[in-house]
Amino acid sequence: MYHAVRIRNGADDLIASVPLMDNREMSGLDPEDYPVFGSDSGELYAVTLGPPPVHGEYTVSLISSDGERIATARARFNCYAEDGTLP
Question: What is the CA radius of gyration of the chain?
Fold first, then answer.
């Protein structure tokens, strides 16, 4: 069973944890007011992750209900301004 998606930075600090099963039916957003989040099936659940990163190394893991990592992906990137400089 899937429990959460966890995002960590290169120093292994937890940046965000998105619950996949906890707090079901708790979302106050209405899909009619926010169609970008809605669908005909499934449940609407919005999680604030904070500002988007502009560079760094991140690990995203799918976590089981017993806290084990089911799958993990790592990404390292730099975003540049249009003139080629770092933000």
Answer: 16
Q: What is the mean pLDDT of the chain?
A: 77
Write down the pLDDT at residue 87. 62
3-state helix, strand, coil in the chain (%, to 5): 0, 40, 60
59 has which bridge partners?
8, 74
pLDDT tens-digit readout, 24-42: 555 565 666 666 555 555 5
Q: How far is CA 85 from CA 15, 51, 57, 75, 77, in A?
A: 25, 20, 19, 21, 14
Residue 84 three-state SS: coil
d(CA 87, CA 80): 6
Which region, left, alpha or beta, applies to residue 47 given φ > 0 means left and ψ of -120 to 50 means alpha? Answer: beta
